Amino acid sequence: MKRFSVMAGLGLLLCALQLPAAAAGNASCDAILSGSMKRASVMDRSACGIIAKADAGDKEAQYEAGLIYLWGVDSLNANADVAAGWFMKAAEAGQPEAAYRLAALYVNGYGVRQNMERAHEWFEKAAEAGLGMAMFELGGMYEYGLGVKKDEEKARQWYEKARNQHNHDAERTPVLKERELAENPWEKAEAGDALAQYYAGAAKWREALSAVNPVNAQVAYGQSAQWFEKSAAQGFAPAQTQLGMAWTRGTIGKADDETAAIWFARAAEQGDAEAQFQLAILYANGLGVKKDEIRAVGLFTWAAEHEHSEAQRLLAAMYETGMGVKADRAEARKWHRRSAQESNVALRDMLRLTDQP
Questions:
Q1: How far is the C-alpha of 210 from the C-alpha of 171, rounded, in Å?
Q2: What is the pLDDT, as a whole number, of residue 205?
Q3: Cα(135)–Cα(103) distance, rounded to whole angstroms?
Q4: How many CA atoms lie within 13 A of 136 on its CB side?
Q5: What is the pLDDT of residues 18-68, one digit of tens each?
Q6: How far is 315 from 323, CA to CA, in rounded Å?
Q7: Cα separation of 60 and 55, whole Å?
Q8: 163: buried, middle or exposed (CB in 10 Å: 19+, 13-18, 0-12)?
Q9: What is the DSSP letter of 13?
Q10: What is the pairing mode between strands 6-7 and 13-14?
């Protein structure tokens, strides 16, 4: 199954989930919970326990039931129609993540008839509840006039709100007039514009990644780092983060985690989610800095709270193993749950930590 992702800056094109249209093979939760279904797994029992709570009206369980049917688990097949139904119940009860996920289904027409007006309505509810990822999608809808009258000023406002929330996608995706700059940054970059210098670095980075000849790749990486360094020196956080990543990966010479940590720290001080995540990895492993698992937990937590899915996954693992923090099964489950809308692996980890009925 492909990862479910929404890219507002690219016209809200979503990756297809390839979900089956029917639940012909679905097992009955009654049979699973009663024990009459001998092949039922631990995951089945956990999932059915959640579905029972959802049936009783628990909006958080309804959201989780939606995730279960979005991805499918063991005897419970993925079913877009059922997933949409549970997301609808939870969203109508005020669960913001369900509202966001329901909006995404309306965009793609999975489990519901495609309807951009309804998608806009639910993205707006999720955004008003404080979800940065929904703010980012609203920006895309206003920019392209999807489900709402085209309005570049409102698009700019929502994009700005998402970036102020340090939503990971919003911090890294060129929007509105930035797209033209990202395509052709050279003149403004030479003139000293920090944003243009960052995009010049990004362009050279992409050139390096696609280079067939290792020598050409190394030259492009070096040019990329030069542009990132010019932008970073002006205090532009994404460039500082990218420069740190160039040092950790050794793409501009010998890897230097100490120098990387300095750049990550500068960007992290500005609230850059990716920088918080990268710096946490260094502290967790004692790379370029003195090992400090407690500080790593704090940095992972900040990034995770700002919708960085990898940070959510690693933070869950730290709570589960007691690394840098007191082991806490419930907290580990919470963070697996936060990333479960993007990963069926995270969903299974969430179910693994769910108390069985």
A1: 24
A2: 93
A3: 12
A4: 28
A5: 333 333 346 789 889 888 887 889 999 999 999 999 999 999 999 999 999
A6: 9
A7: 11
A8: buried
A9: E
A10: antiparallel
Residue 161 is inside which H or E element, if any?
A: helix 152-164
Q: Which of 234, 236, 202, 205 is nearest to 219 (CA)?
A: 205
Dihedral (CA of 323, 324, 326, 332) sign:
negative
Mean pLDDT of 258-275: 96
pLDDT averaged over every residue in the chain: 90
Return all residues near 121 (Cβ < 8 A) that are at least 6 apart: 103, 147
Longest CA–CA span in the chain (Å) reads 73
How far apart CA 267 and CA 237 sit, in angstroms, is 4
HSE toward the beta carbon, residue 351, CA cutoff 13 A = 28
Q: Is 323 exposed, middle or buried (0-12, 13-18, 19+ CB in 10 A)?
A: middle
pLDDT value for 26: 60
Say how far apart CA 19 and CA 103 lie, in whole Å.
17
Q: Which residue has the tokens 């007006």?
A: 117
How far apart CA 351 and CA 252 sit, in angstroms, is 43
Distance CA(277)–CA(236), nearest Å, equals 17
Q: Which carries the bigger pLDDT value, residue 146 or residue 22?
A: 146
What is the distance between the alpha carbons of residues 357 and 338, in angstroms, rounded to a whole number?
A: 22
- The contacts of residue 164 (CB under 8 Å, 6+ apart) are none
Of residues 17, 84, 147, 308, the one with CA closest to residue 139: 147
Beta strands in the chain (DSSP E): 6-7, 13-14
Task: Point out which residues pair with 73 in neighbouring strands.
Answer: 76
The number of beta carbons lying within 10 Å of the beta carbon of residue 171 is: 22
Does residue 2 register a pLDDT over 80?
Answer: no
> Phi-psi region for residue 35, left (φ > 0), alpha (ψ -120 to 50) or beta?
left
250: left (phi over 0), alpha (psi -120 to 50) or beta: left
